[in-house]
Amino acid sequence: MIRALFALALASVAGCRLTPPVATSVDAERGQVALAELQQGRQMMIRKCGNCHRPPMPGDHPAAAWPAKLDEMSIRAGLKRDQRHLIEQYLVLMSRR
């Protein structure tokens, strides 16, 4: 009985883990940006931001708030200018989905 409850609790916690949405060609077309850039931004965000906390979801903040949020975190995450740009592009565009 205890094992069953533990397994159920573990499954529910694992199910709560959300991953940022994958950009599609429709998203890229809407933002007039290459799909590969959006995909790179997403992967970089997961890799860089996920080292310290769960990767953010684009809908966590309005599009206009993401640049300032990235200003706060980019130094801590050790983002280079081009990396920050790709992540910002992904978050801003996908938050308007």
Describe the fold and architecture.
It contains five helices and no strands. With 97 residues, the chain is mainly alpha-helical. It has one domain. The model is unreliable at 4-15 (pLDDT under 50). The longest helix has 15 residues, at 35-49. It is 65% helix and 0% strand. Helix 4 (66-77) runs antiparallel to helix 5.
Annotation keywords:
about 100 residues; about 0% strand; mainly alpha; about 65% helix; single chain; 5 helices
**Average pLDDT:** 87
Uncertain segments are 4-15
Number of extended strands: 0
Q: Determine the fraction of residues in helical runs and give it as a percent range.
A: 55-70%
- Based on Cα principal axes, name the global outline: globular
What is the chain-wise order of helices and strands? HHHHH
Whole-number tally of structural domains: 1
Q: Name the structural class.
A: mainly alpha
Indicate the multimeric state: single chain
**End-to-end Cα distance:** 44 Å
Backbone CA Rg: 16 Å
Counting H and I runs of at least 4 residues, what is the number of helices? 5
User: What share of the residues does DSSP label as strand, in percent?
Assistant: under 5%
Q: How would you sum up the major sheet?
A: none
Short description:
The chain has 5 helices and no strands.
What is the secondary structure topology, with strand pairs?
Elements: H1 2-15, H2 25-31, H3 35-49, H4 66-77, H5 81-95
Helix pairs in contact: 3-5, 4-5
